[in-house]
Design brief:
Strand content: under 5%
Number of helices: 7
Helix content: over 70%
Oligomer: single chain
Shape: elongated
Distance between the termini: 73 Å
Order of helices and strands: HHHHHHH
Length: 229
Amino acid sequence: MKSESFHRVHHVGWLRAAVLGANDGIVSTASLVVGVAAAAADRSGVLIAGVAGLVAGAMSMAAGEYVSVSSQSDIEKADLERERVELENDHAFETRELSHIYQRRGLDQDLAHQVAVQLMAHDALGAHARDELGISEIMSARPLQAAFASAGTFTVGAALPLLAVVVAPELRIALWVSVASLLALTVLGVLSARVGGARTWVATGRIVFWGALAMALTAAVGRWFGAVV
């Protein structure tokens, strides 16, 4: 007997937040550290700036994800409540509406009506949520999950450039942090591609490219301000 197919779409809720958090932790902290180091700051100054960036960034990621995903959740709840009222007030119309949706997807009129009637009898609100509103258990908003995933992975990602600051020779902090961060971004790209089922070189290339660009720009700014000062 053939086993049930394995799909990765159920990872989408936490994977998006986790990849965003880790990527932002690495890139923003490394860019901050490289910029400060390029301005000729000493190790302690660079480390203080990096730790401050880690704390501020993790809290910002958690708050931002929670607020944005909560807004999505509020919209979903409002739509479901509206649909619940419509089902109570005009069940027949809602059945025809669901039948028309299935007809547009390729079923003939009689079969579409039969499917709509049976699904409505089983779980009317669930059928309309899924097929009319596009809301499913897999894709539904989870604010706390997104907030914790983003903040946690941001912290882990930001810790890597800071570790490079600690072990690097003081005159080579920017170089060590850049190399360590690009390696970390490469690993992140590979892992996210494996979990999400994407092509490895595509996922890795876009993460590394934007990370390298951010660090290069902040290094240029740091050098310019360092020279001016």
